[in-house]
């Protein structure tokens, strides 16, 4: 340019180099950003479990025992049937600053009547792990409510209460009265018609599991949204068993043990390498997949176990229970050091 300095722009090669450098920087930063996001989601999950454990402690202090895992009942319309009651999470609503939602439930009926349809479809944020993208809702229920004339909506929970190694369920309405006898086999905190008191946590509140993650997104079985309903006390909705390993990788539908997949009963998580657990003292621990546990077969089913959820479970003589099973029992008399998990 006459009388001045000539203008010079970027060449094509220079522009390509700049774009390439930016691409490399983004590629380097992306894993760090993703890791930071996952760390935040994991901390959110820890916070949820801590709130649930503290709510359970508040309930026990006020009522005198922890909530029932499943207050089963009968109904005159179905005199031979066993109808499930509400979940432990419904019972805890007043202690989670959700008293209006608690008041919306009709406890004179089974949880799965249309009287409770609106409450069932309500999302409770503390019950959804931030990493569990399949939880929450509302979602169309895969089976109708008892007195419904069409489909209803439900919400999914990412958490479950500890039933220990064994869960018992009445085979018929007549068996409901015998549940106190059957429940002597149950060694966790929540089960059918349970009334566990803090004083019964004889193994120590800091060494006894109360709640765990159970990632809905990990279910690979047909119709996954039929399970993990937050409001229902049914066995496959809001209970987990320590007889199954954390994060089982194989999920058939075997006829043995409880007749359900290991995925439905096991603690599971999307955080990787293990799962978060709330203890009975309100603390939250991350237990690794590698924690010492009892032997299981290739399907994730405990070895040497016979029976089922209705008639009872027996373990073969000499069955070795691991640290994970000891943590799941409330009064097994085991001594478990913190360095074991």
From TrEMBL:
Keywords for this protein: Membrane, Transmembrane, Transmembrane helix
Pfam assignment, any one: SBP_bac_10
Membrane-spanning ranges: 12-33
Gene3D superfamilies in the record: Glycoprotein, Type 4 Pilin
UniProt domain DUF1559: residue ranges: 34-292
Record-given protein name: DUF1559 domain-containing protein
């Amino acid at each position: 340019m006459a009388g001045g300095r000539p203008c010079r722009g970027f060449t094509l090669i220079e522009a390509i180099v700049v774009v390439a450098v930016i691409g490399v920087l983004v590629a380097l930063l992306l894993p760090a950003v993703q890791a930071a996001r996952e760390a935040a989601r994991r901390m959110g999950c820890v916070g949820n479990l801590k709130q649930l454990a503290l709510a359970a402690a508040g309930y026990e202090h006020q009522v005198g025992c922890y909530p029932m895992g499943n207050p089963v009942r009968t109904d005159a319309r179905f005199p031979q049937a066993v109808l499930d009651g509400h979940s432990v999470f419904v019972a805890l609503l007043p202690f989670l600053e959700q008293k209006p939602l608690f008041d919306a439930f009709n406890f004179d009926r089974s949880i799965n009547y249309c009287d409770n349809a609106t409450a069932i479809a309500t999302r409770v944020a503390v019950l959804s792990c931030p990493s569990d993208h399949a939880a929450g809702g509302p979602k169309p229920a895969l089976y109708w409510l008892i007195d419904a004339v069409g489909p209803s909506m439900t919400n999914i929970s990412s958490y479950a209460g500890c039933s220990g190694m064994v869960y018992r369920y009445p085979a018929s309405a007549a068996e409901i009265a015998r549940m106190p006898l059957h429940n002597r086999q149950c060694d966790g905190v929540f089960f059918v018609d349970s009334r566990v008191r803090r004083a019964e946590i004889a193994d120590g509140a800091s060494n006894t599991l109360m709640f765990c993650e159970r990632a809905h997104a990990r279910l690979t079985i047909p119709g996954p949204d039929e399970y993990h309903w937050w409001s229902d006390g049914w066995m496959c909705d809001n209970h987990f068993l320590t007889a199954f390993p954390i994060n089982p990788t194989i999920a058939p539908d075997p006829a043995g043990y409880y007749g359900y997949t290991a995925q439905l009963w096991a603690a599971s998580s999307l955080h990787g390498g293990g799962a978060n657990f709330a203890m009975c003292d309100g603390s939250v621990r991350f237990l690794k997949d590698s924690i010492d546990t009892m032997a299981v077969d290739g399907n994730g089913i405990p070895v040497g176990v016979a029976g089922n959820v209705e008639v009872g479970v027996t373990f073969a003589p000499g069955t070795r229970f691991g640290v994970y099973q000891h943590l799941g029992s409330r009064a097994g008399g085991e001594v478990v050091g913190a360095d074991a998990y």
